[in-house]
Amino acid sequence: MAPVFRRRINKRKMKRRLLLILFLMLLVFNIDTISRFFYPFPYRDTTTYYAGIYNVDPLLLAAVMKAESGFNSKAVSVRGARGLMQIMPDTGQWIARQLGEHTFHPDQLFEPETSIKLGAWYISDLKKEFNNDPVLVLAAYNGGRGNVREWLSNMSLSGGNSNIDQIPFTEPRHYVRKVLLYYRIYITLYR
After folding, report:
1. Catalytic positions, written as ranges
2. pTM
3. What is the DSSP-derived secondary structure letter of residue 191?
4. Which residue, 7, 55, 122, 162, shows the most beta carbons closer than 10 Å to its own?
5. Model confidence pLDDT, tens digit, residues 94-112
6. What is the CATH number of domain 39-190?
């Protein structure tokens, strides 16, 4: 091989290596920015406000919204849950009555503030019932508080992070894992 040709190949390799190093440096120094793109925190002020009122970690609420609706306020599940917090219309009606709101309409669940307010209250209520156990609270949020009570009474569930595998149904088990993962990510990015 001619020396000139070798120099061109070496220059190309060196340029590629430098570009790779530059890319990796940008990635390392902007990892928070990049991560926040994939794990945003929209409605932060509203979430923080209602989290404070109902004594719930706002980052947990953000993790629930990310898992439930991907922050789509118009989301509707196959089962009919609505809004950011994916609250069922009947549950929304019940929560509104608990809060003394007698003019509630299910379409209000599409309003971010209403969805966050009702979801924060509901999680707070579940925290009281299930002794602030995040596994039980999230399992009840997803699978229903009645189911979690039954699992506890049948001794098929005792709570605690180490007992996620005890949740008898696949969907709530995966849901709890997903929300707790998102919660750890949100803690890392926003605390």
Report:
1. 68
2. 0.83
3. -
4. 122
5. 999 999 999 999 999 999 9
6. 1.10.530.10
